């Protein structure tokens, strides 16, 4: 990797700022002064310092966000706020993107990363990574409807969903709450599944993806980095 790219990705400023720092003699590679921004280095084996302090390079970031309602699951939009807009500017240099999408009016667990390979594995239909949602519907739902959801329902255009897991949580003030776990990611799938059994979704929140649960301490719009245990759990999903 080019030295200026590595330093820029590690938070030492823009490429222009890094080149100025190199010119001023601030950078050493294996204890040798280096001023050439184009020099190729190996972040795994080379000892790189800036003003005597070691450079801790990281290639990927992995974030868990409690996505709020009203925000787009996108990297940019000219008119509306996106999940990337909620991130600290220092994280933007990694160019993170949402893994999949939640509808604008849906909240809950959303992963953001710049690890394209992991994102692909988590979203691949062949991997069947489960996603669990809390669903509120506008009227009581009976066992027959739950059984239909579990067997698979026609959500339009002749597509029948794969078997799901559905269970009731509670009823309150005429609102029925249930848990629904699916292994697909069709457009508006949860809403279309409930519509197929005669119910309108009035609230939707993703609670879990694979073996990673939404951190209950994260308020809507807040995020944190994944723990090593959570990341390992997601990476293991590659072999499902």
Layout: helices, strands, pairs:
Elements: H1 3-9, H2 15-23, E1 27-29, E2 32-33, E3 48-50, E4 53-54, E5 62-67, H3 89-92, E6 97-98, E7 107-113, H4 116-123, E8 131-137, H5 143-151, E9 165-172, E10 175-182, H6 189-196, E11 201-209, E12 212-213, E13 223-225, H7 228-236
Parallel strand pairs: 7-11
Antiparallel strand pairs: 1-2, 1-3, 3-4, 5-7, 5-13, 6-7, 8-10, 8-11, 9-10, 11-12
Helix pairs in contact: 1-2
Pfam family, one: PseudoU_synth_2
GO cellular component, one term: cytosol
Family: Belongs to the pseudouridine synthase RsuA family.
Task: Provide tags for this entry.
single chain; 240 residues; alpha+beta; Structural Genomics Hypothetical 15.5 Kd Protein In mrcA-pckA Intergenic Region, Chain A; Alpha-Beta Plaits; 3 domains; nine-stranded mixed sheet; four-stranded antiparallel sheet; elongated
Q: Judging by the overall fold, what is the CATH architecture of the largest domain? A: 2-Layer Sandwich
Order of helices and strands: HHEEEEEHEEHEHEEHEEEH
Structural Rg: 23 Å
End-to-end Cα distance, whole Å, is 33 Å
The CATH superfamily title of the largest domain: Pseudouridine synthase I, catalytic domain, N-terminal subdomain
Provide the β-strand percentage band.
25-35%
For the residues shown, what is the average pLDDT?
93
Q: Which residues form runs of ≥5 with pLDDT under 50?
A: none
Let me know the largest β-sheet: 9 strands, mixed
CATH C-level class of the largest domain is: Alpha Beta
Structural class: alpha+beta
The number of distinct helices, counting runs of at least 4 residues, comes to: 7
How many structurally independent domains? 3
For the secondary structure, the number of strands is 13
């Amino acid at each position: 990797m080019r030295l200026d790219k590595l330093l820029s990705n590690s938070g030492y400023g823009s490429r222009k700022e890094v080149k100025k720092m190199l010119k001023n003699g601030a950078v050493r590679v294996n204890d040798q002064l280096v001023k050439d921004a184009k020099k190729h280095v190996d972040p795994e084996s080379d000892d790189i310092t800036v003003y005597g302090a070691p450079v801790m390079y990281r290639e990927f970031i992995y974030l868990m966000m409690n996505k709020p309602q009203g925000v787009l699951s996108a990297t940019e939009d000219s008119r509306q706020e996106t999940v990337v807009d909620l991130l600290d500017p220092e994280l933007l240099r990694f160019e993170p993107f949402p893994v999949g999408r939640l509808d604008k009016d849906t909240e809950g667990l959303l992963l953001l990363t710049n690890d394209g390979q992991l994102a692909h594995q988590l979203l691949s239909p062949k991997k069947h990574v489960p996603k669990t949602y809390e669903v509120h519907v506008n009227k009581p739902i009976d066992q027959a409807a739950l059984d239909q959801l579990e067997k698979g329902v026609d959500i339009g255009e002749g597509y029948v969903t794969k078997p799901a897991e559905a269970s009731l949580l509670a009823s309150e003030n005429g609102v029925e709450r249930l848990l629904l776990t699916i292994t697909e990611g069709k457009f508006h799938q949860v809403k279309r599944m409930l519509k197929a059994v005669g119910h309108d979704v009035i609230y939707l929140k993703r609670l879990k993806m694979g073996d990673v649960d939404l951190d209950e301490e994260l308020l809507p719009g807040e995020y944190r980095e994944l723990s090593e245990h959570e990341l390992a759990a997601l990476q293991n999903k590659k072999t499902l």
